[in-house]
Amino acid sequence: MERIAPLRLAEKWDNVGLLLESPIHRQGPKKVLLTIDLTSSVLAESLTKETSVIVAYHPTIFKGLQSLTLSNPLQSSLLTCAAQGISVYSPHTALDSVWGGINDWLAEGLMNGKEDGQIRALVGEKLNREDGSSEGAEGRLVTLKEPIAMDILEQRIKSHLKLSQIQVGYPDPTRSRSTPIRSIAICAGSGGSMLLGKDADVYLTGEMSHHEVLAAVAAGKHVILCGHTNTERGYLPILASKLQTELRAIEFKDQGLGDVEVIVSQKDGHPLEFV
């Protein structure tokens, strides 16, 4: 995971890396289960699939814990993991920032092929301290070679994220669907604080507060909200492929990790539904 999304790319406020290390070594076949959130359903799934490690994108421990008890659902899940020989790792904003990570995946879904536009950092790039190379950045800015109508962009987003509905804020409802769009500022998850004030035709994220949406629309920006985890979950199969490739590298095969199977949770899902 450190090769895929170096933890040094995570935001200072974040809590990433190995968050729970079980003292119990599970016997038999081993699997790594990928999920956005460690819910009770995902935990139950992990117990039936001979899981040794859960890679939960969102940190299962974010702030300091004063106790670990079974009365708290999340803490109960962590205690169960420890007792059952399951460790928990979280990449969170390191996976957002790294080139080829979640934000790039979101950006690529807005274009009709790689030659359709340019993807670059929305906020300052993160440089490697040793050689000065760019390793990632906060957010992404997509600039299309040719403008497209707003309704075409909406369809591309719904197709890429496999959603039937998204929420859209229009600065001018009278000509909303036909407005030409050329630049889209992107932040996976909750992007209000990062997106506000940026120069782009559209702000695309999972969620923003009511007042953040009002401020953006008043500033003449289109706002597209897809649901927090809906902007993240579609990347898990890509992460699974990358991690599987790493585990099958020669140095890890020699450590007996070549047979570890990386799977994506079937129980992980967005917590809200349209009814």
From TrEMBL:
<comment type="similarity">
    <text>Belongs to the GTP cyclohydrolase I type 2/NIF3 family.</text>
</comment>
<protein>
    <recommendedName>
        <fullName>NIF3-like protein 1</fullName>
    </recommendedName>
</protein>
<feature type="binding site">
    <location>
        <position position="232"/>
    </location>
    <ligand>
        <name>a divalent metal cation</name>
    </ligand>
</feature>
<dbReference type="InterPro" id="IPR036069">
    <property type="entry name" value="DUF34/NIF3_sf"/>
</dbReference>
<feature type="binding site">
    <location>
        <position position="58"/>
    </location>
    <ligand>
        <name>a divalent metal cation</name>
    </ligand>
</feature>
<feature type="binding site">
    <location>
        <position position="228"/>
    </location>
    <ligand>
        <name>a divalent metal cation</name>
    </ligand>
</feature>
<dbReference type="InterPro" id="IPR002678">
    <property type="entry name" value="DUF34/NIF3"/>
</dbReference>
<dbReference type="GO" id="GO:0005739">
    <property type="term" value="C:mitochondrion"/>
</dbReference>
<keyword id="KW-0479">Metal-binding</keyword>
<feature type="binding site">
    <location>
        <position position="96"/>
    </location>
    <ligand>
        <name>a divalent metal cation</name>
    </ligand>
</feature>
<dbReference type="Pfam" id="PF01784">
    <property type="entry name" value="DUF34_NIF3"/>
</dbReference>
<dbReference type="GO" id="GO:0046872">
    <property type="term" value="F:metal ion binding"/>
</dbReference>
